[in-house]
Amino acid sequence: MKKNVTDILDIHTHKLEADSLGKSIVNYPLLADSPLYMPFAGDVEVDRGYYYSVGIHPWELTEHNAGQLLDYLKQQLRKKQFVAVGEAGLDKLAVASMELQLTVFKAQVRLSEEYGLPLIIHCVKAVDELLAVKKEFRLQQAWIWHGFRGKTEQAVQLLKKGFYLSLGEYYSDETMRTVPDERLFLETDNSSLDIEDILCRAAKVRGVEVEVLRETIRRNIQNVFFRA
Ligand SMILES: [Zn+2]
Question: In this structure, which topology does domain 53-225 adopt according to CATH?
Answer without folding.
Answer: TIM Barrel (3.20.20)
